[in-house]
Amino acid sequence: MHRTNTLKVTSISGRGRAYCATRHITKGTTVLISEPIATVVSQEWLPETCLWCFHCSYPRRNKVKAILTQDNKRKLPSETAGFCSETCKNLAITNHRCEEWDTVVNAYIAIDDEYRLREQHEGLATPATSEVDSNDYFGGNVTRQGQQAGNTIDLNDEAQAEGWIDTVWDMAVNSPAFLASKNSILPDTYKADMCKLIASCLIRKHHCDTADNDNLHIQSYSSLMQMQYNEISRFQSHFKKMILTDELAHELAKDMKIPTHAGQDFDTAIQYVPEEILADIEMYIFFASAFEKSKTPIEWAYDHRLFRQVLYREMSNSFGIWDPPEGSEPELLGWALHPVAVYFNHSCAPNIRKFRQGRNMVFIADQDIEDGQELCIAYGSVEEKVQARRARLSEHYSFWCQCTRCCQEST
Ligand SMILES: [Zn+2]
Ligand SMILES: [Zn+2]
Questions:
Q1: 193: in domain
Q2: How many Å lie between the centroid of ligand 2 and the Cα of residue 130?
Q3: Neighbours of ion ligand 2 (CB under 5 A)
């Protein structure tokens, strides 16, 4: 990472943390070069895209294999992965913490194995509904952190919403009936890719927690935790949508208030969970079953709380790896997490342009910027009209854009 002395992190009221100019910046100045903490190449582009520098040699395959395949019959997506050169392979190995690279590769294989297993059984297995009553596992009403002892849980309240979300995840991943209904569902490849990205992050956590990090220049898991976490706002916005569109849900949860007894058993609780959140839980069940079945022992820790710590940061903060890095009609090769880039807020009229340079993201002033002025990038394309733009930003990033351009164009 290379942070120049042209910017600093400050707190702007109503906008949170932001990068601001520390002096006049002329157009074309590089203000930041960021290295990712974790990356993933999508399954589709694995055979032709270098895992380190993201050079895409399509239609030619990567020169150097990442994994030596023993069994030719069993070709998993990760077994087609590789590098454009020996140099990139060595960089990948040496720029991870000790033995971390092997652990990451094994995690990829475990996820591919689970995906392959479900692919083979798709359409064959009708998920059995277990007879086990989830009440057996949750003996009655459990009052959890943030959950009020009164008659209702107010999901508009952050702490109460957080408590409710935690309750729901706990119940879901401990409900035999729910697990049985989800454990053969094939996720789309995007979700399998995200599981690989999340596993890489949790492996980094393990190495940070256990290794002596003194002389390591590699980014720590705690830098990832600096990223904005959108679990509660995501739950709230989908819940609002659910009570607006679903009559039953509307009856059950007027004004975002749900009865405390909703947490008594999972069959009741599930009525108070938007389908988007159930899909997130389904993704975790896929993730967990991959590592439960892993052929190599898993030495790093995972559970739904750790998974959510990363998922709900990755979801609103990951950068697409585009090829060509700048220009028209690029292909999306994968995703990268850049903790130092998170202080760039969004504007539909950004003053900072970003592009990929190999593995790194480069941030350049797109116009002259005054001392003290906020530095903003655009999250995705800002070509659409104001309504469509705001809707897309709200959907993907859970905020309603109030940038100068949006405010002008909406009046
Ligand atoms: Zn390369
Ligand atoms: Zn805007």
A1: no
A2: 48
A3: 348, 401, 403, 406
CA of 191 to the centre of ligand 1 (A): 25
Q: Which ligand is nearest to the CA of 56?
A: 1
Q: Which two tokens stand for residue 129?
A: 């509904």
In terms of average pLDDT, the best of 94-103, 209-218, 226-235, 359-368 is 359-368
Query: Whole domain around residue 248: which residue ranges?
Result: 129-188+203-215+230-315
Kindly report which listed range (207-211, 344-348, 377-381) carries the lowest average pLDDT score.
Answer: 207-211
Nearest ligand to the CA atom of 54: 1
Q: What is the number of the ligand closest to the CA of 391?
A: 2
Domain count, the chain: 1
Predicted TM-score (pTM) of this structure: 0.89
Does residue 348 fall inside a structural domain? no
Cα of 50 to ligand 1 centre, how many Å? 5
Q: From the CA of 52, which ligand is nearest?
A: 1
Q: What is the pLDDT of residues 70-129, one digit of tens each?
A: 666 668 899 999 999 999 999 998 877 667 888 999 999 999 999 999 998 875 544 444
Task: Give the Å distance between the CA of 76 and the centre of ligand 1.
Answer: 21
Distance CA(239)–CA(253), nearest Å, equals 9
In a domain, 262, yes or no: yes
Whether the upstream peptide bond of residue 324 has omega within 30° of 0, thus cis, is yes
Q: Is residue 165 part of a domain?
A: yes
Read out DSSP for 197-254?
Answer: HHHHHHHHHHHHHHS--TT--SPPHHHHTTS---HHHHHHHHHHHHHHH-HHHHHHTG
Rounded to the nearest angstrom, the distance between the alpha carbon of 410 and the centre of ligand 2 is: 10
- Length, in residues, of the chain: 411
